[in-house]
UniProtKB/TrEMBL annotation:
Keywords: Cell membrane, Cytoplasm, Hydrolase, Magnesium, Membrane, Metal-binding. It is a peripheral membrane protein. The active site is at residues 31, 33. It is found in: Cell membrane; Cytoplasm, Cytosol. One of its GO terms (molecular function) is metal ion binding. It comes from Anabas testudineus (Climbing perch). This is Pyridoxal (pyridoxine, vitamin B6) phosphatase.
Length: 314
């Protein structure tokens, strides 16, 4: 991951360097939260950047570990926040990719037990994957609740209604070695405003890994599978022509590195440049995969490059 200009890692780039990068790449992968928006608020200039990339004929896709909403809700959200040219086919969420994995890779036969929100269930339904219905009465316990006989996979995502009973049931299903154990993503936590945090899917998966003594297969970033989904749906994607833009070293930068893409860290989200420098200086060579090739303060730093390109073509 030397980057297109021969320097290694953590290089803050500006003006002409960004322009060269825009010209050199034809496929842009963006993480969402912390890169193009914070929750319900678009990052200033992000919509203009995305719309400009599309207008300049670049391929743009979004790769998000957020599994709480189905893709069509993302399209509405993009539109609402001013990203008016984004279409369903450009959105690769960990819930959508989990559905593809269950349907096309492992071809699951039987039901899936889901720990997750409605958005995740909706994506599975769209792919015709049957999920165990949650029909327990409120007083049910693991001693007396019903267990479905044909559960062939446990899928763990973000679940803000997690109960002890759900964890216990999942643990029981996972005693069957033929029952697959999947996680939408392994994110440990997510930032909220005011310094609060939200435990991520990774924390729920960890609980089940301890209870089952098994390791989950992770679908979302940093696993390569999302890139395989993109490659199967966009013809001729060349990793050398791709730039992965994200705000989290442990997911976005590692994902890019795992897939052979150049990576860019934007400082509007979770990770700081100092953490990236620490990974770069680490003696542990595996840590070097978490180092971005390029760093920008915000993706709005792309805007002057577009202005230059537009002036050139006028
Ligand atoms: Mg993010």
């Amino acid at each position: 991951m030397a980057g297109a200009f021969g320097f290694k890692g953590c290089q803050k780039i500006r003006g002409p360097q960004i322009r060269n990068l825009l010209e050199a790449k034809d496929f842009f992968l963006f993480d969402c939260d912390g890169v193009i928006w914070h929750g319900e608020k678009a990052i200033s200039g992000a919509a203009k950047v995305v719309n400009s990339l599309i207008r300049h004929g670049k391929n743009v896709v979004f790769v998000t570990n957020n599994c709480t909403r189905p893709r069509e809700n993302y399209v509405h959200k993009f539109y609402r926040l001013g990203f008016t040219d984004v279409m369903l086919e450009q959105i690769f969420s960990s819930s959508y990719c989990s559905a593809l994995y269950l349907r096309d890779v492992v071809k699951v036969r039987g039901q899936v037990f889901v720990i997750g929100c409605d958005g995740l269930r909706r994506e599975l339904q769209e792919a015709d994957i049957p999920c165990v219905e949650e029909a327990d009465d409120p007083d049910a316990t693991i001693y007396d609740c019903a267990l479905a006989p044909d559960v062939k996979a446990v899928l763990v995502g973000h679940d803000d209604k997690l109960t002890f009973l759900k964890l216990a049931k999942a643990s029981c299903y996972l005693r069957d070695p033929d029952c697959l154990f999947l996680a939408t993503d392994n994110d440990p936590w997510h930032p909220l405003s005011g310094g609060r945090i939200l435990p991520g899917s990774g924390s729920l998966t960890a609980a089940l890994e301890v209870a089952s003594g098994r390791k989950a297969t992770v679908i979302g970033k940093p696993s390569r599978f999302m890139f395989e989904c993109i490659s199967s749906q966009f013809r001729g994607v060349d990793p050398a022509q791709c730039l992965m833009v994200g705000d989290r070293l442990e997911t976005d930068m590692l994902f890019g590195s795992n897939c052979g893409l150049d990576t860019m860290l934007t400082l509007t989200g979770v990770s700081q440049i100092e953490e990236a420098q620490e990974y770069r200086n680490s003696e542990l060579t595996t840590n070097h995969s978490l180092v971005p090739d390029y760093v920008v303060d915000t993706i709005a730093d792309f805007l002057p490059a577009f202005e230059e390109l537009d002036e050139q073509s006028n």
